[in-house]
Design brief:
The protein is built from seven helices and ten strands. It is of the alpha+beta class. It has a single domain, classed as C8orf32 fold (Roll), CATH 3.10.620. A hairpin with a 2-residue loop joins strand 7 and strand 8. Helix 2 crosses helix 3, helix 2 crosses helix 6 and helix 5 crosses helix 6.
């Protein structure tokens, strides 16, 4: 074999390996420095505190979206490639996150400079790099870590997503009005109506669309996240004005249409029965 052929084969092998390198390589998106007792990442986000312009909620989301997207976003793209149905895709993503993550308290699992952190937020890429399907290692995180991981994966998979800021809890919503198994279909007053469903990844068996009872009152805010790396100081939150029970709302079928349909069915049954009675022979 000539030297020229060796060079061509080598180049072809390099080119064929590029897609694999793109999907599995990379490092967590942030490095950290301490300021006034709190740890900040290289984006200027306070990982120890959720509020304020520098807080992680919801400001950590763009670290793994837009021009900053990496492994977590690519996971979403794979789900989009493998699941044509939006509902099947949405269910599969939640199951995947529940399989490869485990809920754990920050104080038990996050240590910086020998000090356990009472509060800490990981971004989606850091969580995605922490689990390994080959070795069976799971990523450990609490509610906000799981919410941000889900958020980036769902956005990468083609969903609109919103981070939920509730009392002592963080979760996720996705826009999926055609999903038929949710217990609530939320209207967060973003102009789209009811169709946001809850994603709760903090338990291994929580079904898609299940809203924990503590948050059925709608006393929480939602921040829509998009495929953008832009940071917005104090982004405008949305808050639901009412909740939607499956008795009152079926995706794709307004309650008025359901009532009219039932009345028509009752009318037809009544008329049919009356005609059958009239046609009976007199004894």
């Amino acid at each position: 074999m000539t030297l020229r052929r060796y060079i061509i084969i080598f180049l072809l092998l390099c080119i064929s390996g590029i897609p694999l390198i793109k999907t599995v390589s990379g490092l967590p998106a942030s490095s950290f420095s301490q300021q006034n007792g709190d740890w900040y990442d290289n984006f200027g986000i306070d990982r120890n505190y959720y509020a304020s312009p520098d807080g992680y909620l919801p400001n950590i989301a763009p670290e793994t979206l837009g021009e900053n997207k990496e492994i977590a976003y690519s996971l979403g793209e794979r789900f989009q490639d493998n699941y044509q149905s939006m509902t099947d895709r949405a269910v599969a993503i939640l199951k995947y996150v529940q399989t490869w993550t485990e809920y754990g308290y920050d104080s038990d699992n996050v240590v910086r400079d020998g000090i356990a952190q009472e509060e800490w937020a990981w971004n989606a890429d850091e969580m995605a790099h922490a689990f390994d399907q080959t070795t069976g290692v799971k990523a450990i995180g609490d509610c906000e870590d799981l919410a941000f991981l889900c958020g980036t994966i769902y956005v990468g998979a083609g969903f609109d997503a919103a981070v939920v800021d509730a009392i002592d809890h963080v979760a996720l919503l996705i826009w999926l009005p055609e999903f038929s198994n949710a217990d609530y279909y939320w209207d967060i007053n973003d102009g789209r109506g009811a169709g946001w469903i809850w994603v709760e990844a903090t338990g291994s068996s929580n079904p898609l669309g299940w809203t924990p009872s503590d948050y059925e009152d709608g006393e929480w805010f939602a921040y829509i996240i998009a495929n953008s790396s832009a940071f917005v100081t104090y982004p405008e939150p949305f808050q639901p004005t009412s909740n939607f029970d499956p008795i009152d709302y079926i995706p794709g079928f307004p309650i008025e249409s359901i009532v009219i349909g039932l009345l028509l069915a009752i009318g037809i049954i009544y008329i049919t029965r009356k005609k059958s009675l009239v046609s009976l022979p007199m004894s």
